[in-house]
């Protein structure tokens, strides 16, 4: 069997996409399959193998077999292969973007294409880091030579979600492989096709078994990978709930774990920032054009009381101007929610907000029951004002386009509310007064604070969460060194 090539992303033809184990494109051992649905039309577009424990065992064995040679390959050479993968992927970036849009429902222009391009950047970035796997020498005196080596951990087991599937796959592949580990990666059941396409490009350049990509359900395939005794490192991106299971599995075998989990990130707007560019920034930070299915979504908006109503008026108008529509249509700003379960969950939060008498609906509401948008999982961008920070709407990660606005007058109170969350992933501060903005940035309990912008992550910045948003950092050189290598110290007595 060969990998899927020439995927026709413009039409709905059911196709079979095998998974990658030990350099071969294979079905699951059971022969069972999972359907992948296009959430914009609720029609199946592909079948992928329903991988299980037996497939995990084969993939882990293939990765373990590939480890000795790969870990001893000169780091610069490993990096060179990643750079070649980046070049080859760049040539297929449009095809990749369309595949992402088709399976995730993310709009091509605003999300899927940028994701495909950033994926290339990420692989290229890690391709350049081979020679940075440096150790240290320790000054114990003239008669002692003591130095550290950065050694790979072995077989890495990585599990990723569907919200930015290909980018998140690259974030595991790049650092794990550059550092000399081999990898078994489980794609999310809702979005495996782009990840398989990335795997296909990788496999053109990598020795067999260095990268293995499995498709399957979390409780079957994911759990078997997390619990496999030969996996020496777990890296997980997804819900806090499953993150806890992964950490438990890691604790059983004392293997290191990186977790990139959920968020309920605050945006604090100071009264001097009642301006158009701030409102645009709030919309960007909320990731409305990704249906807000983002762990860094700035989903709690803390607005100073003096500007509360006027700011929300303009915000409402701007949000209303965003166009929902077919993800493959270049004019669509916003696509669909990933699947029915998430769609219902998001609608449930909107219903709850509508029932709250104190809350004011600024814009949005429940999705239409008829018309073209009712064909897919289109959620309407929604903003509620006068929400209290202790409501479910303000505490739980909705992972959908529901923004809640909360008024404040006292700066300390705004920061207290921002920090009153079990999450601590991202935060956004908006003010012309840079001293005040930075005081707030330093006081906020979050792994990543942006001042006066609401952008996404870039390769090079150490990204990760405080509190229940996760453990460990990814996206950077430091993240690679900390998360994908272990230090060995060698100490030599020079007097003998
Ligand atoms: P999830 O955490 O269940 O799924 C993420 C990945 O974990 C998938 O590959 C899934 O197959 C796997 N998985 C699920 N159960 C597993 C288990 N028992 N053992 C091993 N692997 C397992 O996320 P889901 O159900 O798709 O979304 C639920 C909520 O999670 C969302 O509403 C959102 O709040 C949050 N989420 C956060 C993400 C983030 O980027 N931080 C990404 C996706 C979801
Ligand atoms: Mg789940």
Question: So, the CATH homologous superfamily of the largest domain?
Answer: Aldehyde Dehydrogenase, Chain A, domain 1
Bound molecules: 1,4-dihydronicotinamide adenine dinucleotide, magnesium ion
Strand line-up of the largest beta sheet: 15-16-17-14-13-19-20
Q: Helix fraction?
A: 25-40%
Query: Strand count, sense and closure of the main sheet?
Result: 7 strands, mixed
List segments where confidence is low: pLDDT < 50 over at least 5 consecutive residues.
Answer: 4-12
The total strand number stands at 23
What oligomeric state is this? single chain
Please tell me what the overall shape is.
Answer: globular
CATH class of the largest domain: Alpha Beta
CATH fold topology of the largest domain: Aldehyde Dehydrogenase, Chain A, domain 1
Compute the number of helices: 15
Q: In angstroms, what is the radius of gyration?
A: 23 Å
- pLDDT averaged residue by residue: 96
How far apart are the first and last residues' alpha carbons, in Å? 59 Å
CATH architecture of the largest domain: 3-Layer(aba) Sandwich
């Amino acid at each position: 069997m060969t990998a899927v090539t020439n995927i026709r992303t413009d039409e709905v033809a059911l196709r079979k996409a095998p998974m990658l184990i030990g350099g071969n494109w294979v079905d699951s051992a059971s022969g069972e399959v999972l359907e992948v649905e296009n959430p914009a039309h609720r029609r199946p577009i592909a079948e992928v193998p329903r991988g299980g424990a037996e497939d995990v065992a084969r993939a882990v064995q293939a990765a373990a077999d590939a480890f000795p040679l790969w870990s001893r390959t000169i780091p610069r050479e490993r990096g060179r292969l990643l750079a070649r993968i980046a070049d080859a992927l760049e040539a297929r970036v449009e095809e990749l973007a369309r595949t992402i849009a088709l399976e995730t429902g993310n709009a091509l222009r605003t999300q899927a294409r940028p994701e495909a391009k950033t994926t290339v950047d990420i692989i290229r970035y890690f391709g350049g880091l081979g020679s940075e796997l440096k150790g240290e020498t320790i000054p114990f005196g003239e008669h002692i030579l003591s130095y550290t080596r950065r050694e790979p951990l072995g077989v890495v087991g990585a599990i990723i979600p569907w919200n930015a599937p290909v980018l998140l796959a690259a974030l595991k592949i790049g650092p794990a492989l550059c550092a000399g580990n081999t990898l078994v990666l489980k794609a999310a059941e809702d979005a495996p096709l782009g990840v398989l396409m990335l795997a296909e490009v990788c496999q053109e350049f990598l020795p067999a078994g260095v990268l293995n990509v499995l498709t399957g359900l979390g409780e079957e395939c994911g759990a078997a990978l997390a619990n496999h005794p030969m996996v020496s490192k777990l890296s997980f991106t997804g819900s806090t709930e499953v993150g806890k299971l992964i950490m438990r599995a890691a604790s059983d075998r004392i293997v290191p774990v990186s977790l990139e989990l959920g968020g309920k990130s605050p945006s604090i707007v100071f009264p001097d920032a009642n301006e158009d560019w701030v409102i645009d920034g709030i919309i960007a930070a909320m990731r409305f054009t990704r249906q807000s299915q983002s762990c860094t979504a700035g989903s709690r908006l803390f607005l100073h009381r003096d500007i509360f109503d006027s700011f929300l008026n303009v915000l409402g108008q701007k949000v209303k101007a965003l166009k929902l529509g077919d993800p493959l249509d270049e004019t669509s700003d916003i696509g669909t929610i990933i699947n029915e379960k998430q769609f219902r969950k998001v609608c449930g939060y909107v219903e709850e907000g509508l029932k709250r008498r104190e809350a004011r609906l600024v814009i949005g509401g429940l999705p239409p029951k008829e018309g073209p948008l009712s064909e897919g999982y289109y959620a309407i961008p929604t903003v509620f004002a006068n929400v209290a920070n202790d409501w479910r709407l303000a505490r739980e990660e909705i992972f959908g386009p529901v923004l809640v606005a909360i008024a404040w007058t006292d700066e300390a109170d705004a920061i207290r509310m921002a920090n009153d969350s079990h999450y601590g992933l991202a935060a956004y501060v908006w003010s012309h007064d840079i001293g005040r903005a930075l005081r707030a940035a330093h006081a906020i309990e979050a792994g990543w604070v942006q001042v006066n912008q609401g952008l996404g992550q870039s390769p090079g910045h150490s990204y990760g969460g405080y509190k229940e948003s996760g453990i460990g950092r990814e996206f950077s050189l430091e993240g690679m060194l900390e998360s994908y290598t272990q230090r060995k110290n060698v100490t030599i007595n020079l007097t003998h």
